[in-house]
Amino acid sequence: MMAGDDNKRTAERKTVKKPVEFFVDADIIQAESVDLSSTGIRMTTQHPIRIRMRIYDDDGGFSEQVAELVWASKEAPLTSYGFEFGPDPEAE
User: Fold this and answer.
1) Count of H-run helices and E-run strands, the chain
2) Domain boundaries, the chain
3) Is the Cα torsion angle 8, 13, 18, 23 positive or negative in sign?
């Protein structure tokens, strides 16, 4: 990595367009509000929000990953999310 490069990625990225399904585990997540308005809320959690996702291949197969939300960015009309893959607690 070059000096002054703010890229924090530890693995090479490739541009890939594949269908993805994701779902939040059925756990109840505790949070605390930071600020509140009539149109939304900002809140904090002790732990990252964990999801399970399926990334589909062209042949219809898929890989399943567990990931934690690490960032979100809204640029109308789309919202982008960054997730970091991690271990599957159900596999341990």
Assistant:
1) 0, 6
2) 20-86
3) negative
Contact residues for 87 (Cβ-Cβ < 8 A; gap 6+): 66
Taking the alpha carbons at both ends of the chain, their separation in whole angstroms is: 34
Q: How many other β-carbons are positioned within 10 Å of the β-carbon of residue 84?
A: 11
Contact 83, 68 (CB under 8 A): yes
Chain centroid, CA 51 distance in Å: 7
H helix intervals, the chain:
none
Residue 74's identity, in one-letter code, is: K
pLDDT tens for 32-81 read 999 999 999 999 988 888 899 999 999 989 999 999 988 889 999 999 99
DSSP result, 40-54 = -EEEEESSPPEEEEE
The pTM assigned to this predicted structure is: 0.69
Count CB-CB contacts under 10 A for residue 73: 9
